[in-house]
Q: What sequence folds into this?
């Protein structure tokens, strides 16, 4: 019979989801966050509680009478069923209260979460503000240290400027003393200016005379160039005679060996002439350098003549004049030797290029080698 009562009680019990709420709370399967549709979970649960809430009995315990022994089995079943219904009703009431308190706790939790997020945001802002304040204080300290360093540098520079000012004052006093001494020397030098001017005029006249000699040397060089042109004309005459000799050499026999020997001699003579020409050019360059040195000495002599006081300028001018004459004569000798060597080298080159044997004219046409015809 107890089993039947339990079965009837289970059958008569309401088929609702109220009994699943404690299970979900105990198993912690009910989330506290929002649903995918964006609504709060606590609001939905509270609305469900309000919908499922039914009117509670006014006085369940007051209506219950003391249990009496049933007269028969059916009465016992009815009493057991009523007791189970009463217990189920009390249990449902407790569940509703728990659900209401759970909804309230969820709402409080949501408010606490919002407040916590707000507090954390304020804390982060305060941390950032504190960091900014620290950075500003550090920059202020660095700026203060830089200002102190600059102040120390400025003080050091001020000390150095004061020292430089003192040294400048000392230099100014020394300069004033030197100016006074120079004024004394100037007054002494003014008395010697007349003699220096006369010496300078004499040196200037000597310089003009040396320039005249240089012009004469240039004229001699021009005459030497005219002689070179005459030598070229003589070379043309020699070419004409060589043409005549060429006609005679056509009848000569066994001339190949002699031509080779003569050509070798001419090449050797040309080499020696080129070497002499190089030496002559070097000598000419040395003469030019010596002439430049002499001119430099003359210029220095003129400068010293302006500053000379009681020196024997006449002897120095004579020495300079002798040096100039010597260098001029040496330069002329070098130039004449160079002109001569150039003329000989040119003749040897022309003879070698034209195949003209140097020994053929002296020994006669029978010793000349046959030469090819060359137009001139």
A:
């Amino acid at each position: 019979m107890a089993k039947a009562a339990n079965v009837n009680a289970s059958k008569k019990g309401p088929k609702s989801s109220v009994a699943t709420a404690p299970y979900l709370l105990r198993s912690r399967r009910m989330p506290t966050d929002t649903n995918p549709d964006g609504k709060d979970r606590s609001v939905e649960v509270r609305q469900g509680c309000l919908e499922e809430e039914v009117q509670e009995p006014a006085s369940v315990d007051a209506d219950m009478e003391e249990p009496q022994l049933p007269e028969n089995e059916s009465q016992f079943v009815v009493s057991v069923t009523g007791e189970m219904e009463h217990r189920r009703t009390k249990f449902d009431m407790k569940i509703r209260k728990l659900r209401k308190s759970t909804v309230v706790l969820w709402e409080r939790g949501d408010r606490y979460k919002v407040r916590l997020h707000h507090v954390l945001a304020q804390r982060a802002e305060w941390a950032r503000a504190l960091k900014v304040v620290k950075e500003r204080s550090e920059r202020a300290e660095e700026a203060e240290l830089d200002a102190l360093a600059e102040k120390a540098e400025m003080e050091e520079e001020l000390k150095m400027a004061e020292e430089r000012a003192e040294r400048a004052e000392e230099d100014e006093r020394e300069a004033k003393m030197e100016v006074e001494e120079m004024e004394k020397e100037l007054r002494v030098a003014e008395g010697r200016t007349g003699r220096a001017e006369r010496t300078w005029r004499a040196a200037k006249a000597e310089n003009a005379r040396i320039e005249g000699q240089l012009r004469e040397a240039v004229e001699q060089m021009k005459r030497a160039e005219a002689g070179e042109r005459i030598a070229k004309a003589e070379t043309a005459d020699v070419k004409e005679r060589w043409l005549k000799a060429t006609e005679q050499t056509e009848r000569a026999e066994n001339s190949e060996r002699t031509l080779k020997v003569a050509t070798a001699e001419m090449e050797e003579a040309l080499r020696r002439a080129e070497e002499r020409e190089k030496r002559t050019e070097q000598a000419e360059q040395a003469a030019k350098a010596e002439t430049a040195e002499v001119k430099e000495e003359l210029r220095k002599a003129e400068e010293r003549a302006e500053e000379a006081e009681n020196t024997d300028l006449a002897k120095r001018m004579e020495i300079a004049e002798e040096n100039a004459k010597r260098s001029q004569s040496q330069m002329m000798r070098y130039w004449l030797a160079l002109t001569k060597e150039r003329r000989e080298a040119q003749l040897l080159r022309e003879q070698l290029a034209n195949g003209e044997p140097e020994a053929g004219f002296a020994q006669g046409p029978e010793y000349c080698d046959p030469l090819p015809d060359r137009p001139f």
